[in-house]
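Final report, closing paragraph on structural work. Over the funding period we assembled a curated collection of sequence-structure pairs, and we close with a single example.
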Amino acid sequence: MTRRRSGTTVHGVPAPFPQPVIMRVGRPPHAPTVRSSAMLLLNEELARARMREYEAVAAQARLGARVHAVQKWQRRAERAAQRARLAAAQIL
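Its predicted structure, as stored:
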C-alpha cells in the first residue's frame, strides 16, 4: 500500500498517527558546536572576511552605477549643447 501526503493510504484506510520527534533540550537542532575559543575566533574571522568581500563587491557595483550615471548625464549635456548651438545658428 502506498501512502498519500494527506495521511490516508491509497485504499482509503487511515494511516497511523505519526509519532512526535523528541527534541534535545539545550540547543537548537543543527546548531554549530564551537568547542574552543580558537574555533570561535576562526569562525568570526571567516565571517569578517566574507563581509569584507561582500562590501568590496557592493562598493564596486556602486562605483559602476556612478560611472554609468555620469556617462548618461554627459550624453544629456552634449545633446543639450548641440540643441543650443543649432538654435543659435537658426537665429542668426
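The mean pLDDT is 80. Residues 51 and 70 are 28 Å apart (CA to CA). We thank the funder for supporting this effort.
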